[in-house]
């Protein structure tokens, strides 16, 4: 039977959440580090320590999600639990995003940022697991890729509004504080409004019947799932590979602007270069979606991991503005593809009725694991006094991830 080519309404509503939450993560990758730099600079914090503290805050948020994610994900597999848990985390993240301009000290700002980041990351545990409910198995790669693609291009709308407010605040008669407040509110409102169609129309198709003690039972199921994964070598090896290569991806996303700022590169140039990443990521994510119909997903993932290894090696010597622009373009080529294909590949090899608990564990090895890369960059920067010292280790993460993924793909073929 020929695959239905048009996206269904439910698939589109699911994709809209990627459009909404991507606005926050673009904010985290661009304006937020620069705003934090101004707070830290006003308090006498050095450039090296500023980069380190930003990395530590990102690490704390991911560790918290790594702790909470599997339990919440397992609980979400219970009938009618996934949607309200998703809504709670989304609202927490958007609300914290809207008040990011209120703290006047760098430390208080980082606390609010951690809360917003935890809400964002935790919502993705449920959102990713919804993929098996909104589409058919043969459409997983296509829908997942469209999510990232439209997320990248859609996030440019609130970003451009925010950037205009920040860069033109004086001509608009706004103080910088007022401009930043409006920027944060715009991104929070965009995130919330883009979530509403999914909240209204999503129905949980794959679930575990409501037990007598759902919370207690969720812990027991989580324990059993860990035991199951240990016995399913292809899933276990894939999660280990994912831990390493996606750690490198998220570290580059979260630290790019902070890294460029610490190197003394022009602030406006950094923001526009990362906007380029979003624009480039849109067509390339769709391109890899098409390629997934002709080539195995495993092969495309190997290409993406190999490309990121070269990107990390190039970033080690980065010290010029044009090099940052080139880096932004190269990252855009593979960023959406590696995230989308990783998600759909995992969704394909797990039991759909346990998608919540499996994606909760997936989040440990993914976003929860990115604390290693961000912490590594921060520690190496402080130990050596050089901002680019930790970048070399990120390339090693990709190499390890590639080797493990090759083994995981072979095990999957044998299943």
TrEMBL record:
PROSITE patterns: MFS. The chain crosses the membrane at residues 12-36, 51-73, 85-102, 108-127, 148-168, 174-199, 235-253, 268-287, 299-318, 324-346, 358-383, 389-409. It is a multi-pass membrane protein. The keyword Transmembrane applies. GO terms for cellular component: plasma membrane. Keywords: Membrane, Transmembrane, Transmembrane helix, Transport. It is found in: Cell membrane. Residues 234-415 form the Major facilitator superfamily (MFS) profile domain. One of its GO terms (molecular function) is transmembrane transporter activity. Its main location: membrane. InterPro entries: Atg22-like (IPR024671), ATG22/LtaA_families (IPR050495), MFS_dom (IPR020846), MFS_trans_sf (IPR036259). The keyword Hydrolase does not apply. This is MFS transporter. It comes from Candidatus Limivivens merdigallinarum.
